[in-house]
Amino acid sequence: MKLKFQVGLLVLALSSALSAMAAEADLAAAKALLESGKPAEAYTALEPFESEMAGDQDYDYLLAVAALDSGHPEKAILIFDRVLLVNPKFAGARMDLARAYFELKSDTAAREQFELVQAETPPEPAKSVIAKYLAAIDARSAAKTDSFTAYTEFAIGYDSNVNASTSDANIFVPALGATLTLASSNLESSSKYFSVVAGGEYTHVMSPKIKLFIGADIKKRQNPDASAFGTGSLDTHAGIRYGEDDNNVTVALQGGRFYLAGDPNRDTFGASAQWTMTIHPQLQVSLFGAFTASRYVPTTIQANDSNLGLAGISWLYAVDPEAKTVISTSAFVGKDGEDKIRADGSKDFRGVRVAAQHRLRDDIALYGSLGVQLGDYDTVNIAFNEKREDKQYDAAAGVSWRVNDAWSVRPQVSITKNKSNIAIYQYDRKDASVTVRWDFR
Question: Each residue of 348-406: pLDDT tens digit?
Fold first, then answer.
């Protein structure tokens, strides 16, 4: 009996010691883990003590924050409610409760809590954070409803080569063994120009992840000094977008008609697909592909009918968290296949483009781009006894000034240079313009 009594005392002593240990969670260590960006470790360290320490405000708050930041918003809400029941004026806990509701996409509850904190006149940093969350809630709410956007652009400019033609009037043709003089319509023509562009798109939200859209764009450009090369177009598109903002797939059908000097010149129809993924808050990557069939209306040029397919990858990188400087790059390959019999046959092409934008202020940004595209044709051009090879280089730079939410102004200059082993296809082109744009959202 004496031995059993002694064992019982030992067990009781051990139990008391363990209970005492369990009641002493290391709050300072947990706080240090949270401050060093290790919420999951803080949650693991704090959670075993909840049955003994629940009701301790400091413990509860740290546990709730650790739960929220380690991906347990439901658990965090229960604990924040416990903290606020005891101390309704604890603004930090209410702010984090609002964050937890936001993470769960309970936007009505999140807005209510953020506005309660806002009403208490918090410090400026907290005001700024609240404003960003409320803006995000507004954007998320807007994304759940059907929407219509539209735009109009007016541009004036000067184009050194509106018809993208050679400046060399005398071309040697090996098949004839003679030098021919090109007609003026086949030579580089310069002109000042003005253009009008307008378009719109309607989006129907079927579910939070599924959106249908349909839209159209109309373009008209006049070249007073080269009226034979005035252009116009009517393009339509419709498709479906599936997924969230940070991971979605878009598939669309397109169709359109292109006009030259007021007459129908070319009809196009096709399809495109794009998968966009946000790899990191500052990095977005897209995979894309498209097919376009071009059919010329005048019978005299229907030999140029073609079927074009391309595929590529692009990425958008924000150099800084505020996205003041953004760099984008795309690389692509494709084939422009002849539909009938074209003088140069089908073309295999590949290219790369790099662009950058830097915001000087919230309303003013500088931008620029560089691109190169290489094209190899598969048929010997019998007139020149060569398989055509082209190298096209282009560069552009400009300034974007957003006057207000609806209006913006964009002066821009661009240069294009097309080199070819067949002289008739070589040309240079320079363009300078100012565009005024109006957006309706």
Answer: 999 999 999 999 998 999 999 999 999 999 999 999 999 999 999 999 999 999 999 89
Backbone angles phi and psi of 121, in degrees to 5: 55, 65
Domain 22-142 fold: 1.25.40
Domain 149-440, CATH: 2.40.160.60
pLDDT digits (tens, 9 = 90+) for 302-361: 999 999 999 999 999 999 877 899 999 999 999 999 999 999 999 999 999 999 999 999
Angle at 292 between CA 190 and CA 197, to 5 degrees: 45
Give the residue extent of every domain in the chain: 22-142, 149-440
Burial 162-189 (b: 16+ CB within 10 A, else e): bbebbeeeebeeeeeeeeeeeeeeebbb
pTM greater than 0.85: no
Amino acid at 291: F
H helix or E strand, kind and range, residue 7 = helix 2-22
* Look-up of token digits 């410090």: 123
